[in-house]
Design brief:
0% strand, rod-shaped
């Protein structure tokens, strides 16, 4: 047996070397595949976090506008901040969702304009002309009787 082993030692070492190389290659391939799966999951998670952040910003903006009573300038500022905070939505969502974010911003600007128009009187309206505006005498009570 020793003679056979001595004669074939080189062949045995080549077989062991080849088997070790194949084993290392299989293990490296398995690890690479696992790393690929982890990276894919991490990408999905990161995308989810970014989308959730944008959704929360949309929800917060809608709540601020609906629940508070800011003046028109503050409403315009909030709309601008919303736009700046959510401009990247086109990279994370499909076109329809991205358009929805844009519509919310545009409607915020329209709301600001409407609030501004409501704050100042329409001077072309006949109700606001100097001839039709009632004069108030502050020395008399509101019901017109003398005190």
């Amino acid at each position: 047996m020793r003679a056979w082993l001595a004669a074939h030692i080189e062949l045995i070492l080549r077989i062991i070397s080849t088997a070790a190389t194949v084993t290392i290659g299989v293990a490296a391939s398995f690890l690479a595949y696992q790393q690929f799966k982890i990276s894919k999951s991490k990408l999905k998670f990161d995308l989810y976090e970014k989308r959730l952040e944008l959704f929360n910003r949309l929800r917060d903006y809608a709540s601020e506008v609906a629940m508070t009573n800011p003046d028109w300038n503050e409403t315009l500022d909030k709309a601008g901040k919303f736009y700046r905070d959510t401009i990247q939505c086109r990279f994370f969502f499909d076109k329809d969702v991205s358009n929805y974010f844009n519509n919310v911003y545009e409607n915020g600007k329209k709301l600001s304009t409407a609030m501004q128009e409501l704050e100042r009187p329409n001077l072309t309206d006949p109700r606001w002309s100097p001839q039709n505006r009632p004069m108030v005498d502050w020395s008399k009570p509101a019901n017109g009787s003398a005190a």
